[in-house]
Amino acid sequence: MSASKPRKYNVVVGGGLAGISLLYRLHRSGFENLLLIEKDALVSGESGKSAGIVLHDEEGLESLDIYRSLDVEVRDLGPFSYVNPYEFAIKLYYGLRSDGVQFELFEEVVDLEAFEGHVIRVITDRSSYPVDRLFLAANLGIERLLGRMGDALPEKYYRIQEIIFRSPVPMEPIAVVNEDFLVRTEGTHRLIVLGRPEVVDKPREGLTRAEPQFVDRVVEFLIREGFGDIGLEKSLIGYEAVYPCNQRYGSNLYIFACFDGMGSTYAPSRAWRMRI
Question: How far apart are CA 187 and CA 240, in angstroms?
Answer without folding.
Answer: 24
